[in-house]
Amino acid sequence: MTLRVLLADDQALLRGAFRMLLDSADDITVVGEAADGGEAVALTRTLRPDVVVMDIRMPETDGLTATSQICADPELRATRILILTTYETDEYVAQALRAGAAGFIGKGIGAEDLLNAVRTVAEGDTLLSPAATRSLVTRFLATPRTVTPHHSEQLAALTPREREMVALVATGLSNQEIAERMFLSPFTVRAHVQRAMTKLHARDRAQLVVIAYRTGLAHATPGAGTDLPSQSDTGRPADGTDHQP
Predict the structure, then answer these.
(1) Taking a C-beta distance cutoff of 8 angstroms, is the pair 165, 192 a contact?
(2) Beta strands of the chain (E only): which ranges?
(3) For residue 108, is pLDDT > 50?
(4) Going by DSSP bridges, is the β-strand pair 3-8/51-54 parallel, antiparallel, or unpaired?
């Protein structure tokens, strides 16, 4: 399956370089280019790409506004946004996540890493490292909030295993890392995470992180990042159905 990518960057030279790189991969093709956020939104509605690689600082409509507009459109739910920017600040990461972006990386990323980033986001995974997630959540998403009845209802829909998975996703762990920690297969982890996303109406793992902290399912420890579930809480399952094959 070939991943269809839309590039959104106001610098034509960079767009050209990124296009050459992405098109060099057998499983990726660039279907369009946008020079500003407004054009990115319009082309996304027309071309329906799998991934939009979005810059932040662009004329007219910026990348964060464009991301918000795309992610708010139910007809574009299948499109994932990967923020690719020179400005890797916590504030921008927070705004990008709240807008609905599924990934956030800097333009200093290596060629192969960019290709893998596009693939990762297209699969519905988030691209934030554990360190970036902890910093982000501590500063922006873990402010004291009252858990509303609606939040409680959201969590009530989750099974105990799904709650564990969401809490671990909130620390920035990948499916593979969660699988190793909980002695499960990656396939089983992915299934639990996807069911949790469906129940919580989360567009992607990035939104799942936000929900986890806003509902109090995950917590931030001041000055020390996020709280990880203890091994006793996420040890080997009672039966053998979830064990690594």
Answers:
(1) yes
(2) 3-8, 28-34, 51-54, 80-85, 103-106, 220-221, 225-226
(3) yes
(4) parallel
Q: Are the CB atoms for 126 and 136 separated by under 8 Å?
A: no
Q: What is the dihedral of CA 120, 190, 168, 56, to 10 degrees?
A: 30
- Rounded Cα distance between 241 and 201, Å, is 27
Residue 167 to residue 190: CA distance in whole angstroms: 14
Distance CA 80, CA 58 (A): 19
Query: For residue 80, which of 54, 50, 59, 116 has the smallest C-alpha distance?
Result: 50
Which H/E stretch holds residue 20? helix 12-23
Is the pLDDT at 226 greater than 60? The verdict is: no
At 135 the pLDDT is 59
Neighbours of 144 (CB within 10 A): 5
